[in-house]
Amino acid sequence: MSRLEKLIADVSAGRISRRDFIAQIMALGAASATLGLGFSTKANAGDITVGFSFPSFEHFRWAHDRAYFQARADELGMKYIVQGAEEDVSKQDAQVDAMLAQGIQALIIIPVNIDAGKDLIERVKADANIPVISYNYVIPSPKLDYWCARDNYLVGEIQAKQALTQAKKGNWAIVSGPSGVDVARQKTEGALRVLKPFIDSGEIKIVSHEWHDAWRAEGALAQIENALTKTNNDLQAVVANEDGMALGALRALTEQGLAGKVWLCGEDVFPEVGREIVKGNIAMSAWTDLIQMGRAAADAAFALAQGKKPESNDKVTVEGVDVAGMRIQSRGVDRANLAEFLKLTDWLKPEDVGL
């Protein structure tokens, strides 16, 4: 463990104060090699260094987001410090403090916790007053400078529209992520908007809808097990906010011999889900253009660090303040277009999904 990593561990665990931590970080000087600082020899690079704080690198997609961001940052000639917080709020706070001590000119953050992320923005603004960009989520702070996030309503709409064309009417279930996270709420609302006329007419009955903290696959498994018991296995479709929960739902369906017989979808196109799409057990998964998201975050950080206004296509109002951002589009991926999807992106390789 490097000295910098030990300092982060110590302040996260409360063994040293934040004041002592900052003082020792400053004494260390530039610790860029430890934190993963990327360099470019491009003449227009200037002295711009951007910090990117991830909640962790355990989730399948975060490594891809990191790669897309770094590729664009390298093109721009921008230096960067990238850290993963192991889903620990205190560690994320400490890592951001270390980035500030090294003089970053902008911060991109995927918060471990939305509420803690709001507090962190307040502190960054008070301590350094640098631009802050919220990535993947829109942190509800009026001091936020910019955001990059998917159109979550569109994800739910894509799922529901394809379900209506392929699934039988009757008993349906909706598997949602954490109720306190806007991503889960918006995906669910997008799906329900599309389904509402059919629910109102009685053609579709939502026999089960539950929210699951931490996007737990085990919660989805239990929910669909209960839904199957409740309906005596008379279930026609399951719309899941996310692929991990779709896989949990698939386990419940498989146990009852219903894999491939009940229409099922998710979001993110995990490798495991890609394989199940090939097998016919999962009908589709929505995929957000994360290449665009990573590039948009790099472009925004580069512009804001120079005092320029980044390109945006949307805005959100937070406590009366309009915050501009980039709304990233999504597409549905199913068996019919999976091969094309693999060619257009480097998200997965054919061998990852059994093609």
Automatic annotation (TrEMBL):
Q: Which organism is it from?
A: Mesorhizobium opportunistum
What SUPFAM superfamilies does the database record attribute to this sequence?
Periplasmic binding protein-like I
Q: What's the protein called, per UniProt?
A: Substrate-binding domain-containing protein
Domain Periplasmic binding protein, first and last residues per copy? 50-309
Q: Keyword Signal on this protein?
A: yes
NCBIfam families assigned to the protein according to its UniProt record, in alphabetical order: TAT_signal_seq
Family per similarity comment: Belongs to the bacterial solute-binding protein 2 family.
Q: Which Pfam families match?
A: Peripla_BP_4
